[in-house]
Amino acid sequence: MLSRFSSRRHFDDLSEQEVLALAISSEEDDALIYRTFAQRLRDDFPASAAVFDGMAEEEDGHRHRLIELHRARFGEVIPLIRREHVSGYHARSPVWLDPDLGLDRIRGIARQMENAAGSFYAAAARRTTDARTRDLLGSLAAAEAGHVQKADRLEAEHLTADAREAEDQSAHRQFVLTWVQPGLAGLMDGSVSTLAPIFATAFATRDPWTTFLVGAAASIGAGISMGFTEVASDDGVISGRGSAWKRGVATGVMTTLGGMGHALPYLIPDFWTATTIALIVVFVELWAIVWIQNRYMQTPFLRATFQVVLGGALVFAAGALIGAG
């Protein structure tokens, strides 16, 4: 009843010809998506690009066989019907339009595409009582399952251990450049630069609430400033550091968190309790920075410790002395 007033047809209401036409258009769309992935990966990940080229060719082969079946059963004119015209058909969010998709995300999307299509066709085949339609949908389900197996064979052919290791290293490097490095810069700025104003206010006023307000203002203001500075300073095209907005979000959020970490304890009314907890938080923040530098930036542990802990101690001492004076 409701389908009469909807602009979309339900899958169960489609004729066998329309189901076949839908399968043809779906195979065509999937081939185009795989070619898009291959084009994006070709420069940095040539082995994975070859895998997606092969998957696109496999989709083309199935589409040609489906067209031949349609020609034999229904003639030359294929109805124009696509997945967005059908209610209940497996919908796909156009995530491939995102120019900053990582290699692992692209691989995951491809596998989801094949698994979803195969599961849908298999379920549709089980629901129908018409022998020819059941055979058609079952064949499509088998074809989609074959695509997954074909993708595995292509990965085994093109993605040797050395090729996969090289591509994984490249993907890790991009992750570090886009997320870790900007986030680390923000955490360092938020944790260290706010030490002086927060503890100067704390020792000057001995008022936890005033200290919290100053700390929150300094942290949020620094986060906004650092985030927009990162976005405006480098669009990532020449440097290869990735999306400016992703880097800006990483920098801004981590800057704010770095400052708020030792501002939040001053919500405790007792001054010395709040100060003690704030100092513990500062200690954890500084050692977290050291760990991130050592883990992701390959900075020697002792050098990172000297730079971060000594720098933080000097900034804290400056703030405490100014506030006490």
TrEMBL record:
Pfam families: Rubrerythrin
Any GO MF annotation of the entry: oxidoreductase activity
Family annotation (InterPro entries): Ferritin-like, Ferritin-like_SF, Rr_diiron-bd_dom, UCP035918_rubreryth/DUF125
Limits of the Rubrerythrin diiron-binding domain: 18-154
Keyword line: Membrane, Transmembrane, Transmembrane helix
Transmembrane segments: 274-292, 304-324
Gene3D superfamilies for this protein: 1.20.1260.10
The keyword Transmembrane helix is assigned to this record: yes
Protein name from the UniProt record: Rubrerythrin
Organism of provenance: uncultured Rubellimicrobium sp
Upper taxonomic lineage: Bacteria, Pseudomonadati, Pseudomonadota, Alphaproteobacteria, Rhodobacterales
